[in-house]
Amino acid sequence: MPFLSYPRALELKNELRETNAEVITMENENYAEGISRFSSSCEKEAGAIVRVTSTDEVSKVVSFATKRHIPFVVQGGGFNTSGSSSTFGGIVINLSKMSQITVDPGAKTVFVQGGAIWEDVDKVSATFGLAIVGCTMNHTSVGGTALGGGYGWLTGRYGLIIDNLLSARLVLADGRIVTVSMTENPDLFWAVRGAGQGFGVTTEFVFKAYPQTDPVFGGLLYFTADRLSQIVHFANEFEERSTGIEGFLFGFTGSLLMQETVVFVVTFYNGSRSAAEKFFEPILSLKPVVNEIEMMPYPKMNTILNRAAEFGGRKSLGGSNIVLPLNVKSVEEVYRDFDTIMKTFPRVSESFVVFELLPYIELIKVPNEATAFANRGKYYNAASIFRWHDPELDPKMRSLQQDMMNKIGRRAGVARSEEMNQGVGVYANYAGHEANATELFGDNLPRLQTLKMQYDPDNVFKKWHDMFLHTSVH
Predict the structure, then answer these.
(1) CATH code of 354's domain
(2) Where does the FAD-binding PCMH-type domain lie (predicted)?
(3) 184-207 pLDDT tens trace
(4) At 252, is the secondary structure helix, strand, or coil?
(5) pTM of the model as a whole
């Protein structure tokens, strides 16, 4: 496939000369900023970065690239660690200037452009006393998280992000601009909800919004490792006690405060302090080393995990799943494995493993075949971000991470469950390229492939997860 040569770059600039799009090439001083990513291992020398300002400009770039067989990628926030928003020699369609947010308080809907970040969505919605299901890390882009499914603190009450998507606007592989919803192009709307990155550039979203005027109870706690078994015991009771307004995350990370790997907890309760303290009393009574819990506006809750979403360093994101109850000894073994990695390798202390208990009450009301998203079941996500700095450690760190997440899945996930009608157990937004299309989409894959042949027969949009690739990539 041809790269974008300098003469082609000039041709692209000429194509966009009467628009507001900015074409950045290697000689521009902001080029280095344009190719920077959440993980430095994903930074590639693009032929050009195009900062678009409208759907029409996106269409022009897509048409330009596809007609000349030039590879292109789409960058929202650049947080994917598999390199799907980077290209060597191709075109990066950067959506960061497309960040408009409009709230209709009467209809309780929020219009969001594809380059907006969740922080701005939260803040704008809150001025109208509303909130939408959004990402728990608000530095990330709306498009990148929403199209793959999307879990948030409000998932227990309102479902996934895609369950609250009313419509979207896409630029297809041939440059056509279409609107998708339950009534317009419903087949493509089905595909977008869970596999949207594989069908086009989504430039606009319309979401349902919900009243959220009261503060929420939440924050971060750090514990010493001897508290881990009690934290797991609380996690095992979470499912029975939860009503859908709570959230509970726990995991491990390196610490500058203590000699050993620290155990952390993040709590969420969408209600009064007294009710929240009663719910989390078994955790609060464990005497955390650090306690940052408070009543706060809902938008602030989505900042708690941002320290894990800072740019810089080499990173890999991995995912698995867990079914309750967890075996305490198995979790303690994962802790020891992680602690060994922290002590063995230099400058990896900002890595973490997390078990995400966000209630599935609403999520499983939607059948797996109702949307392309196939990860609905009575289980929870586990995730990890490994961070290091030495490029020579790339294969080792990815291998250690994959081994750890596979162990979690085998010992604690749906693989050991007898529950029928479970989802695939793999969250596409957490999965690297080692996960194949069958693992990600299960029984939904044949329908997705049929739609790909209709809307993207040349498989232009394959950087996220290739739906025509059946075998694992190692």
Answers:
(1) 3.40.462.20
(2) 42-212
(3) 999 999 999 999 999 999 999 999
(4) strand
(5) 0.94
